[in-house]
Structures are given as structure tokens and as C-alpha cells.
Write a structure and sequence with these properties.
Layout (H helix, E strand, L loop, with lengths): L4 E2 L12 H6 L2 E2 L25 E10 L2 E6 L5 E5 L4 E6 L2 E4 L16 E6 L3 H4 L1 E11 L2 E11 L6 E11 L10 E5 L2 E5 L18 E6 L16 H5 E4 L4 E6 L5 E5 L7 E5 L33 E2 L7 E7 L10 E6 L4 E7 L5 E6 L9 E6 L5 E5 L6 E8 L2
Antiparallel strand pairs: 1-20, 2-23, 3-26, 4-5, 5-6, 6-7, 8-9, 9-10, 10-11, 12-13, 13-14, 14-15, 16-17, 17-18, 18-19, 20-21, 21-22, 22-23, 24-25, 25-26
Amino acid sequence: MRRIVLGTIAALTAVLLTPAAQAQCPQVDHAVAPHVDQPVDQHRGAAADRVPALHVKRLVTGLDHPWDVRPVGGGRLLYTQRDRATVSLWANGTKHVVQGFPTGSVWVSGETGLMGLETDADFATNHRFYTCQGGFTGGGHHDVRVMSWTLDDALTSITGHEELLGGFPTTSGRHGGCRLLVVGDRMYVGTGDAATGRNPENKKSFGGKTLCLMLSGRPCPDNPFVHSGNRAKRYVQTYGHRNVQGIDRRRDGTLWSVEQGTYRDDEVNRLRNGGDYGYNPVPGYNESVPMTDQSLPGRQIRAVWRSGNPTRATSGGGWVYGKGLGAYDGTFAVAALKAERVLFLKISGKGKLLGVRVPPALRTYGRLRTVVDGPGNVFYVTTDNGSGRDAILAVRPRG
């Protein structure tokens, strides 16, 4: 089962079922606005498309805005909390705050703090992990940056760190991004536009982009603007985004993102090198413009899925795998904050949306920030309700 990262959604209109039926059947998302030309799953498929009931367990409790989580072997979980600005390890039912992590160096404001987390492909031997976080640049200024950290053999203390890439724009802390994905020796970063209208389409800004860098910190050699004289532009993989909250790689090698919309059109996008995703909220920060504005020069890439009006406040998202998951196996799972649910998108090999499932078992935990694939048939979901009421949920098929 591959790792997935997910986050939040707004209110959906679902098929009307009796309470007894709701306990047994996943709901079908019918809240796609009329202008959104995407099909909806009517559950008329082959018998092999089995929809298992899901068992949800509050695995790690007493948390405050847990933003990201990674399984690190032996049943252990590494996770971040945005506002507390701590990295912690959960093992054998016990939480341990990682010692030596400089919480005071993390700038926390609004939607920005200690956010995305990712582990190195060789974490089992090198104990290296990465965070995306707010930081201080001096003179009362701030940025968002990607950091590399190394743990001791017990995974309880920091032994080294370095900044891989910094200077992502910030304002109040709104639209800080920031999700990470490591594939081999490279890293993909989804960023927010810092609520600044010119950032998404400006290729010389890190804001409103997906970026690609080698784990050495250099731009990926196949980035579309790698030979640019501008440093930021060399890292740009795609542009024209509002606030990228999820990023993951399908088993076929394609890259996908989750993006929060304005009052309309949260999006799931297939990422294409050099692609323009069409968000250009100018002059000022004009959030009435389309999320994918087809009137801009050049070609803008349409979303594979979009919420329509209203949005669900989508957050993390990614591919979930496991034969025991039945119809959920090989779907793109998206967590939602406002809608308080997880959407499982069935997408064809050619990138066409085939349907959406919304299991009732994940609709009773409030705001949901992210979903992360785990070993076997388990995946993890973090809640985002604040005030120490949050948890990391372990979800697996029942029975």
C-alpha cells in the first residue's frame, strides 16, 4: 500500500439513505455543481467492485492540528503539529516529542507553522526526514522553507539539519502550502500563493507552484525552466496554483495534486511538467476569478476533479492501495476540512474521473487534514479541530 497524503473538504449533498442504510453504504458525492462536467459514481459496476465497511480507531490522541504523519516501520509513526511546532514519534502506544527540534525557530501564524513532513527513501538506514515550515529571515520578516533533519538510531533526538530551499513568500500566514513528496533522490513541493495575486503566474516566485528539487538542494535537471537566469524559476515544475495542500505519485509514475479553491472549485490536478493551472487573481487579490482561467494567454490545464460551488476545503491527497480495501484500492483519497469527510476518487489510467465515494465511517471526526497510506490495508487520517482534541486515526477494512 503506497503512502498518501490528504487533507480537507466542504459540505457535500449526498444520496438520501435511511439511518440503517447509511451505516452500511458509502455515500455517493452528488454535490458537484451543474457547470462541472465530471461524472459521478452511481455504484453500477462489476461485482468485483466490493465496497468494504471501514473500521476507524483513534490511534494517537491529545493532539493539536497534526498536519502530517509518516509510518517509519515497526508500527511507529512520525508526525508534525502545526501550531505546537513539534515533531513527535508514536511507538507502542506512547508519544515522544523529538528532542533537539528547534520549535522556537518555526514561524507560526494563521495557516502557516510546522506543516509538511516526508521521510527519505532510505530512512531505515539514514534516519533522514524533511519538513516544510514557516521561518524567520531577520528584521521581522518571514518565509516558508524546506528543511532536512537527521535522527539518532533511537529516532528520539535530532543529530543534524540543513535548509534545502527557502524564500517561499509569506504575508499573514494565509496560504502557506506546504506538502512534500520524496521520490528516490528528488523532492516535489506544493506551495501556497501567500494570498498575493501576482504570485501564481509569476514564474520568478516560489508561491502558487509545485517545485522539484534534488535532495542535494539543486533544481531537478528536467525542470522546464532549469536554465533560467532566475534562481526561483529554475525550481518551478508547474505554476498557476492557489494553495497546493496535497501532492502524490501514482504507481504509473504520474504526479497529482490537491488544491484549495476560493468559494468554488477545489481541484485535483494531474501535474504536467511546465503546466499552467490558470489561477491569476489580479488586480489585487481578486478571488472572484476562475480557479482555472481559460482566458489567459497560452494553454491552461483543466482539473480532473473540481468541487464546484461551494468548496469542501480540500487539503492533503494521494493514492491509496491495498487489496483488502476493495473498491477503495487504487483510488485518490482527498481529506476535507470544511466538509469533514474523505473523498475517494476513482480515476482511469488515462486520467478521467469515473466516480467519487464518501464513506460514512469517516464523517464523524470533524475537520480532516490529511490521509497517509500505511502498510498492508491500513491508512492514516489526521483530524484538524484544535484545542488538543485532535487525533491520528488508523483506518482499515472491517472484518
